[in-house]
Amino acid sequence: MSPKQPPRLPDKILSWFCAPHLLEEVLGDLHERYVLNVQKIGERKARKRYWRESLSYLRPSILKRQPTPYSKPILSDMIRNYIKVAFRNIARNKAFSSINIFGLALGMTCSLFIFLWIQDEKSIDNIHVNNDQLYRVYSRNFGNENLEVNYKTSALLPAELKEVIPEITYASGFAKELRLSRPGDIQETFQVGDKVYKLRGSRAGADFFKMFSYPLLLGTAETALSELKGIAISRKMANLFFESPEVAFGKTITFRNESTSSELIVTAVFEDLPHTSSDQFDYLTNWDDWVQNDEFKNSWGHFGTHTYLQLQAGANPAAVEEKLTNFLENYLDFPEDRNFYVELGLQKFSAKYLNGSFENGRPSGGRIEYIQLLGAVAIFILFIACINFMNLTTASSIKRAKEVGMRKATGATRWNLIGQFMGETIVLVLLAIIVSIGITTLLLPWFNELTQKQIVLSITDTSLLGSLIVLLAGVSLIAGSYPAFYLSAFQPAKVLKGSMRSGRKANGLRKGLVVFQFILSILLITATIVVTKQMSFIQNKNLGYDRENILYILLEGELVNNYATYKQEVSRLPGIKLVDRSSQTPHRMGFSGPFVTWEGMDEANPINFVPSSVGYDYAKLMGMEIVEGRDFSLSFPADTNNFLINETAVKQMKLQDPIGSTISIFGKTGTVVGITKDFHTQSLHETIKPVVLDIKENLNFGTLLVRTEAGKTKEAINNLEKVHQALNPGYAFSYSFLDDEYGRLYNSEQVISKLTSSFGILAIFISCLGLFGLAMLSAEQRHKEIGIRKVLGASIGSIITLFSKDFLKLVLLSFVVAAPIGWLAMNAWLQGFAYRIDLAWWIFAFAGFLAIGIALFTISFQAIKAGLANPIKSLRSE
Q1: Are 674 and 644 in contact (CB under 8 A)?
Q2: 637-648 as b/e, with b when 16 or more CB fall inside 10 Å?
Q3: Considering the domain boundaries, does residue 91 fall inside one?
Q4: How does pLDDT run across 398-431, given as a tens digit for each residue?
Q5: Which of 366, 463, 537, 649 has its Cα between 20 and 30 A from that of 79?
């Protein structure tokens, strides 16, 4: 009778720790001795001794492992093998590999461009050391049951907030709009010796450079803007006037405003601002000096400047905003019934660039929506490229079925095969990334011109490297995971018998991916058409005036006092058709308020009017239509006290007989002599406002408007400059075209329009590239079938029909799904425009037919090639 077995636990312990090449020998010796000990000393003592002897083997010489001929391959060898096999497959299947690599490269190039653009957009205003503590104030203006939100605040607000609210460390005003007549950045005149230049700048408080980390080359943050007659200038301005910042520091520079001239001392020189700053300026002058010398700005009722704040570290922004909300109640007299009042809000300084729109009185949306849109486009196009890869790889699986069968038959596990196919995918994706970087580098100058950016592609940039690594991993996983699992699941018995066929599930998934691919492509085509049409609508819409051949010049210096002489001289010049003036430029009439009163008005619900003081020829120069009454005329001396109003004003004032009605504005009372057809005073994002025009040809500010004769603009500008130099020698001559400035109102939309058009074309091209590959593979797999059909009398047309119908069904299904989704998406985008195109059915039909036509053209190339092939070659014996 055989003895009992030794204890199992010591054997398990030894198997865990003992070197594999020694384990069998050690266990054999222990078991032999155990059998002898059972016979000599009995089973109980033998078991105890077995434990002692087993544990005595746990020493370094036994634990040390040694390589054996049967050990698993080293990881580096496996990777090397995968790479070698991958390159062999690329070389063996050049056409499909090229389509895969080029398709992925195009998708990655698109994504890379969008990533660089988004990265640049998100970097705007995120350049300051104290970024987390920097905020700006916005105002909510309630009145006439309406809510208007903007960033305009009182010029007195910064100093008062710093004094009253302890959580505020620094506060500074900043003038985004220096002139009522010219909203936005304008250029002002400076002179040193005989050098006279116009430069862009602003006004800022003494705390400005303490808050913002713009590098100071000379001077300190404490003293840069502390002197009333001090000025901080950029390196560019210092080099322009003084040849170097060192020479410029402490020097005097003559500054000429609209009607005044002063001597300023250079108290600081700062580095030229990067393009990642939304506030761009070449100089800053003292805030207090600017406010104290202007009675209008030196009052709490003036809302036209911006307020920047820096909170203490650790301060609660929500608590500060709560203190701000009703802050103005102590400084402004609001009506008791609260039919008009103003609240203040707080927004992080860096957030405004991307979130500059408002909804329900709070910051909500803006350029961030374009980032989200293009981010989605990048994902869509990259996914389209990945779908191509998945489809082509799985569709060509029959070619590699025998390889999989042989590997499995010789001992390869499914995970070995998954690793191999994923390795091949990584190699292909890596090659695609290299090609993509080359294409991106080549096209980057074009992209910068298109987007008006200064983007630089630097491979050493850590964020870019990180993104490329994520791209490599993500695309490899998305594009390679399904083919790897699909191919590795082949059964070797079926494969080696030759009974392997492409399964229904694989075909169904492949068709589903093609449908999804073309859904995305049709959506991008639809977006391209809608955005392009809306931009065309904006550019060509009748604004209520003719903006062609009109240029405007800021009235300043001697032009203010000698306007009549200047107008008379300019009117005689060849190429000049009409000359007039306006207190606001026609395309950006941002100054508005409840200034107008009239008999019978509802005082509880005042109306915000856009006022503009003009000359007698303004309506004629602008090409405005008088729909009722008459225009201003020198034949009526009383017109200096009379008014023109637009149709919207008549409707909102509820005037039954507007001509002859008496109205008052800014202390002037007169009658309405004419009604103009409605015209736009701002971009088409805004609705038409009620407008009131009056005659004031003696204002000390404003804009000179000049209409030139068609085809003689260059001659007219040269003559204008000569007259300007003769009558206004202390101010540099500069001008702007009205149609160009109007176009700049839609810079963001124009950039998005161009990008969506480019990427839409790219998306459909990548989709068709995949379709071309599938058609080529289908022709290769069905060459014998096509040969038999041709032998039996099938025509080339029937071969093309047979070949194309399955693919066209998929594209048609894509259109049916994409059309309603596209309508919802584009309708939501158009809601941001007060005036917009109608979403006609033909837009979606055109997008669908375009996709079908391009797909048919792509497939037909392979179908015709297959139909023309000699059937003898396809039917001959292998």
Answers
A1: yes
A2: eebeebbbbbbb
A3: no
A4: 566 666 777 667 666 777 777 777 877 888 888 8
A5: 463
Q: Domain check: are 253 and 216 in the same one?
A: yes
Please, are residues 500 and 398 in contact by the beta-carbon 8 Å criterion? yes
DSSP state of 327: G
Residue 77 placed within a domain = no
pTM for the predicted model, two decimal places: 0.75
Label each residue of 571-621 as H, E or C: HCCCCEEEEEEECCCCCCCCCCECCEEECCCCCCCCCCEEEEEECCCHHHH
Q: Determine contact, residues 534/837, Cβ cutoff 8 Å.
A: yes
806 and 757, same structural domain? yes
- Cβ neighbors of 373 (< 8 A, separation 6 or more) are 752, 829
Q: Which two tokens stand for residue 285?
A: 């002058």
Residue 201 β-bridge partners: 283
CA angle 694, 179, 560 (to 5 degrees): 65
Identify whether residues 138 and 286 lie together within a single domain.
yes
Neighbours of 852 (CB within 10 A): 18
CA-to-CA distance for 457 and 453, rounded, in angstroms?
12
* 631 lies in some domain: yes
What residues of the chain score a pLDDT lower than 70? 1-4, 61-79, 82, 144-145, 179-185, 259, 337-338, 394-403, 407-408, 410-412, 482, 486-510, 773-774, 776-783, 796, 803, 861-863, 865-878
Domain that holds residue 851: 369-538+747-875
Asked if 340 and 486 sit in the same domain, the reply is: no
* Same domain, residue pair 387 and 337: no
What does each C-alpha distance from 568 to 406, 563, 565, 578 come to in angstroms? 96, 8, 5, 10
282, 304: one domain: yes
What ranges in 124-188 are assigned the alpha helix state H? Answer: 157-164
Helix H or strand E segment including 736: strand 736-737
3-state SS of 188-231 is EEEEECCEEEEEEEEEECCCHHHHCCCCEEECCCCCCCCCCCEE
| Residue 360 belongs to a domain | no
Do 308 and 444 belong to one domain? no
Structure tokens at 403: 């390889």
> How much is the pLDDT for 645?
94
Look up residue 245 and give its two tokens.
Answer: 């910042």
> Angle at Cα 149 formed by Cα 145 and Cα 152, nearest 5°?
130
- C-beta of residue 268 within 8 angstroms of C-beta of residue 218: yes
pLDDT tens for each residue of 649-697: 999 998 888 999 999 998 899 999 999 999 988 887 788 899 999 998 8
Instruction: Give how many domains the chain has, as a whole number.
Output: 4
Query: Do residues 759 and 825 both lie within one domain?
Result: yes
Beta bridge partners of 852: none
